[in-house]
Every structure is written in C-alpha cells, then in structure tokens.
Write a structure and sequence with these properties.
By secondary structure, the protein is an alpha/beta fold. It has 2 domains: about 270 residues, Aldehyde Dehydrogenase, Chain A, domain 1 (3-Layer(aba) Sandwich), CATH 3.40.605.10; about 190 residues, Aldehyde Dehydrogenase, Chain A, domain 2. The protein is about 40% helix and about 20% strand. Helix 2 packs across helix 8 and helix 3 runs antiparallel to helix 8. The longest helix has 20 residues. The termini are far apart.
Length: about 500
C-alpha cells in the first residue's frame, strides 16, 4: 500500500474487525493539504456501544482471573509487536502524519512510546501482586485490590497514541477489560494500532469504537456496565463526562486542560541547548500539547536574553508538510483550533502587545491553503488577555518579566488550571523549594513537556486540570478498588499473603 492510497478502518468488537451497525463512515483529511482525503473510519452507533461493552463485560472474569505476571507477559508481547515490523511502523507513522499534521519524527516517537509504556506497566506486576497485611489485635486484615470491570477510555486527537499509553496498559495490567474511543480528528493510525493490540489479546479484552462523540459518547460513559471512565480532553467535555458518569456513580479520571507556567530565575543557564528545550517545551506538535509550556515568566535581568534566544530558535524552524524531512513544524490539526489561535493573536495585537511571528515558510502557497501558523512570541502582554489566561493549544508563547520569586509564583498560580509547570535555575535546592509552591501536578526542572516526562511518575493536575492520575503505579491502582479481608486476630496469624 502506498501512502497516497486511502486507508479504511473498522470497529473492533469481541476479537473481530467489523463495520458500524449502520454502515456509516466519516472522512479524514490532511490538515497540511485540506483537500486531500486520507481515509475513512467507521462511524459507530449506540448499538455498537452495546455490543462493545457487552463483549468487554463477558471477557472480564477470565482476564481478571489471570495473575499480574500472566497479564504482564501478554503486555510485553504487545510491546514487542507494536514496533517489531519497521515497514508497518513506518506506514502507521506516515499515515499518522498525514491525518494529524505533526512531523514524522513525532509520529515515530508516539508509536515507540506506546510500546515503552506497555513494558513499563508489565514491570509493575510483582509490586501489584503484593497485598498489605495489618496484623495484631484486635484484627488481622488483608488489604488488597480488585479490578473494577469494564473501563471506558476516551482519547484526544493531539497525542492519541502517547495518551493511549497512559491509560490502556494500566487498565489491562490492573485486570480490567476496555472499550476505547479515539478522537475523530486523528483516528486512523490509532485505530490500526489498537486493532493490532486487540488481536494479540483474548477476544473482548480490548474493543474499539470510532465515530461521533455526540452520538456514542453518552451511551458509552453512561452505560451501567462501565465501571470506570478515563477521559482526556477539554474542561468543557470533562464536565459533561463527569455529569453523565455520576448517574451510575461511575468513578472518573479526568486529564483536562493546562496553562503551564515556566519560571526562569536570574541564575538560569541559558545556552543553546536550554533554548532548544524551551522551544520544544512550548512548540512541539505546533503547541498542541496539554503539558506544553504556555506562559513563560522571566526574571527581568534575563528577559532580553530569553527573548533574543527564543527568537533565534523560532526563526530556524521550517513550517510545512510534516512528511518533508526539512519540516520542523507541521500544521495545526484542524481549522477550528487554528481559528482560536488567530483570534487570540488578533486580540493581543489590538491591545498593543508586541507580537513576533517567526519561522521559515518555503512553500507559501501550501501555507495559505493548510492549517498553518508560524510560531509567535507575545512579549509582555496584559495578564488579562486570552493569550495569558486561557489555554492556547497552539504555537504561541507569552513571555512576561518579573522582579521577585514571590511575584513569579503568584502569577504562575493565578490560573484556573494546575497541570504542569517548570523552574529554570542552576540551583537545584532553589528549584525544588520554588516548585513546591506551584499549584501543579508535575513540575519539570530546566525542561518542560513530553520530552522531559518520566512515565514512572503519576501524571495529572489540580483545579480544573482534572481529577486523578494517569501513569506510574498510581495510574494503575486508579483502575482498581480496595478490598479488605478481616478476621479477629489469631496468635499465629491466619491470613496468607503469598
């Protein structure tokens, strides 16, 4: 199959790839070339939700009965299969680039990271198998955990495979079966990858539904047999998911928006590598990253240096089709989000902010037709402008000076979000001390974003950035419920934890 042939994907239910019950499909286009049709995906109906949840529910007892070691071994087989065929990996990577817009290097990164996260979860098998024993009068109590049942996993369009790796292997190693709903905007490569995973596991353990969230979202989240919902996406949709799940008292994990603040202190090391990390933290995937650096606060003594360094870094970027080897920034994924970014920039410009639109555009005609936006630095904007107070989710970065650490912390915490943050300094003790004052679920030191993420740590946010955590040991336990077994204490102890 050549990359220009159309790709067709189906649902995957109870071990079988199949079309939607209605036979309906939807189209996906290339955001770099919006007239170019990339393929079609099956558009599921509520009837398909019933079939998928029923399949997962029936598969649950046998999957849950396996030991952690046995489930871990199957996860390791998945991890190998995801990357063992370089031709298949390249095909899925190029397809992902064409339907999403991000550059080819990043699509390869996502596919490899998904495999790594399956392996990481398998590594927890021994730790998960250990129960806690509380002995001594008046009781001997065994504290263990049980999988919840069917988990609904809802994945966004911006980093669908990497985010899938933050919830799917965790749900599986915990003993749950799943129904996965990828986002419409970038579902082809994700669905093909999920088909590969599902086919390696017993029928019904992994089921895949693609289609309109407006049509199948509520039936899935509100299904009485769904015992856990894990959603990544916008605050607005997260609120709705929480309301629907509440009807059945279904526990939710919500990883929502972020407006991440970075703080550059007066002693930060600002060499070319540091500016490269700053650039990647803010502009990777055209800024369409929940954990991206979205507000940068700089000590006034280093402000001009930071502006000059980031200006130079942004000017080196080549904006174009992500399949081209010289491209370092692809288009935004969709016209709606591009419109949001341009409205923010218009508001900032009308308010008198200094906007620096940077980067090289080798193909102006392509740029004008596609959903492209060059990287923009917004210098010292009013803090009440949307480019500062709202999540941009695009390639723009406000840079704001400060005089004291207290002022920087106050500005960083002045947000409805609390996902990630970063501190830039040569003094690690100073960095940790300041980081502890930031209202964020994750703080990076001298880096920011996906390239700085340690998958062994739990990931999530405070305030409107969400509820609960993904990844790490904690992200697995979130898919389980605690179960205590207790009896009157005996002199020799009678509970066997082996």
């Amino acid at each position: 199959m050549t990359e220009q042939q159309l790709t067709e994907t189906e649902l995957f239910i109870d071990g079988v790839a199949r079309p939607a019950s209605s036979g309906n499909r939807y189209e996906l286009y290339n955001p770099a070339r919006p007239e170019e049709l990339v393929g079609h995906a099956a558009s599921a109906d509520p009837e398909d939700v019933e079939l998928a949840v029923d399949a997962a529910h029936k598969a649950f007892p046998a999957w849950a009965a396996l030991s952690y070691r046995e489930r871990g071994e199957q996860l390791r087989e998945v991890a190998i299969a995801l990357t063992e065929d370089p031709v298949d990996v390249d095909f899925r990577s190029r397809l992902f680039c064409r339907e999403h817009g991000k550059i080819l290097r990043e699509t390869h990164l996502e596919i490899s990271r998904l495999g790594e996260r399956f392996s990481q979860c398998a590594d927890y098998a021994l730790r998960l198998a250990r129960d806690e024993l509380v002995s001594g009068p008046p009781f001997d109590t065994l504290i263990s955990r049980q999988p919840r049942g069917v988990a609904a996993l809802i994945v966004p369009w911006n980093w669908p495979l990497a985010i899938l790796g933050a919830k799917l292997p965790q749900a599986l190693i915990a003993g749950n079966t799943v129904v996965v709903k990828p986002a419409n905007n970038s579902s082809l490569a994700t669905t093909l990858t999920l088909h590969r995973i599902a086919a390696l596991l017993p029928p019904g353990v992994v089921n895949v539904l693609t289609g309109s969230s407006g049509r199948i979202g509520d039936p899935l989240v509100g299904h009485p047999l769904v015992r856990k919902v894990n959603f990544t996406g916008s605050v607005e949709v997260g609120r709705h998911v929480m309301k629907i799940a509440a009807e059945n008292i279904t526990p939710v994990t919500l990883e929502l928006g972020g407006n991440d603040a970075g703080i550059i202190l007066d002693d930060a090391k600002l060499d070319p590598e540091a500016f490269r990390r700053l650039y990647l933290g803010a502009f990777m995937s055209s800024g369409q990253v929940c954990m991206a650096l979205k507000r940068l606060y700089v000590h006034r003594s280093r402000y001009e240096e930071v502006v000059a360094g980031l200006t130079a870094e942004c000017e080196r970027q080549v904006i174009g089709d992500g399949l081209l080897p010289e491209t370092t920034m692809g288009p935004m994924n969709n016209a709606k989000q591009l419109g949001v970014i341009r409205q923010m920039l218009k508001e900032a410009e009308e308010a008198g902010a200094d906007l620096r639109e940077l980067g090289q555009v080798p193909d102006p005609e392509l740029y004008d037709k596609g959903y492209f936006q060059r990287p923009v630095l917004v210098l010292d904007p009013d803090p009440y402008l949307s480019v500062v107070k709202d999540e941009q989710f695009g390639p723009l970065l406000p840079i704001i000076p400060f005089d004291t650490e207290e002022e920087a912390v106050a500005m960083a915490n002045d947000s409805i979000f609390g996902l990630c943050s970063s501190v830039w300094t040569e003094d690690r003790d100073r960095a940790v001390s300041l980081a502890r004052k930031l209202e964020a679920g994750y703080t990076y030191i001298n880096a920011h974003g996906p390239s700085a993420q340690d998958g062994r740590g739990p990931f999530g946010g405070f305030k409107q950035s969400g509820i609960g955590r993904n990844m790490g040991y904690e992200g697995i336990v979130a898919f389980q419920g605690y179960h205590c077994i207790s009896a009157p204490a005996a002199p020799s102890g009678w509970l066997d934890t082996e």
